[in-house]
Amino acid sequence: MTPDTENVGVSKYTIAFGLSAALASVVNALLVIAKEKSQAVQAGMQKLTGHHWVTHCVTVLVVFGFCGWLFARANGGRGMEMSVNRLIGTLVAGVVVGGLVIVGFYLIGD
Amino acid sequence: MAHVLFGVACLVAAVWIFVDVLHATETNQVRIRRMSRAAAVFMWVAFCIGGYWYVVFYKVDKAIILKGPWPFAHSFFMETKEHLVIMLLVLVTYLPIAAANNLATNKDARRVVLWVAGMIALVALLMEGEGAIIAMGVKVALLAK
């Protein structure tokens, strides 16, 4: 049973890394298109770590970690400010758009 | 395959967290946080084992699948799986961060964790299904020989 008095809002890290996760999902999808459509991009990614997929994973995880850290330091260290509804909407939209772009690309674009 | 086992463990943990968060109190809050860390560990282990297998050994399976009657097991299912799983990894890494809020007294924090755990469960289920089709792709190709 939940208490009668409810707090609202979430920590700055929840907002920062939530936005970063949405961004990383979209970057993930864009990277798929870039490497599948450009041999030069794929070759470059292959060269960096020995396998294009490993470079892909590292890039997305670095985007997630770095942007999360950056967003948490925004507004003089208070982090990015937004409502929880907007955070959830952005996160779900990022994941859904990222997922649909990947599925759609291999379904019709490749 | 060990990565399937850890993937299923992550899926079960995500469903566990979802149900626990629906009934979040001071008493189960510690368990929710532990389970969210466990889900992240399970997924990272699955990802490392599956990723190693994919990079080192999958090319043999790929060649078999592409010569068989189900080439889409690679050209669609494996191609989407190997990229959607990165999204899943990001979500499970985020889960313990979202679960660090006071879930017992904070409705907003509970909503965030519910959405994240729900998405993890759905994407993990999708990964399991895609993995099954890829394995079937190899099997039907070998049977067709």
- State the secondary-structure class of chain A: mainly alpha
How big a fraction of the residues of chain B is strand? under 5%
Low-pLDDT segments, ≥5 res of chain A: none
- Helix/strand/pairing class of chain B, anyone? mainly alpha
Low-confidence stretches of chain B: none
Q: Which pair of chains forms the biggest interface, and how many residues does each contribute?
A: A-B, 41 and 36 residues
Could you say which overall geometry of chain A the principal axes of the C-alpha atoms support?
flat
What's the story with the biggest beta sheet of chain A?
A: none
Radius of gyration of chain B: 18 Å
Rg of chain A is: 17 Å
Q: What are the secondary-structure elements of chain A, in order, as H or E?
A: HHHH
Spell out the helices and strands of chain B N to C: HHHHH
| Separation of the first and last Cα atoms of chain B | 24 Å
Number of domains of chain B: 1
Helix content of chain A: over 70%
Strand content of chain A: under 5%
3D architecture notes:
The complex is a heterodimer of chains A (110) and B (145). Chain A has 110 residues and is mostly helical. Chain A is built from 4 helices and no strands. Chain A has helices at 12-37, 39-49, 52-73, 84-109. Chain A is flat, with a radius of gyration of 17 Å. Chain B has one domain (2-144). Chain B has helices spanning 2-22, 26-56, 58-67, 72-99, 107-144. The longest helix of chain B is centred in the C-terminal third of the chain and has 38 residues, at 107-144. The model of chain B has no long low-confidence stretch (mean pLDDT 96). The chains are: A mainly alpha (110), B mainly alpha (145). The A-B interface holds A 1-3, 5-11, 13-14, 17-18, 21, 24-25, 28-29, 32, 51, 53-54, 56-57, 60-61, 64, 84, 87-88, 91-92, 95, 98-99, 102-103, 106-107, 110 and B 24-25, 51, 54-55, 75-76, 79-80, 82-84, 86-87, 89-91, 93-94, 97-98, 100-102, 104-109, 111-112, 115-116, 119, 123.
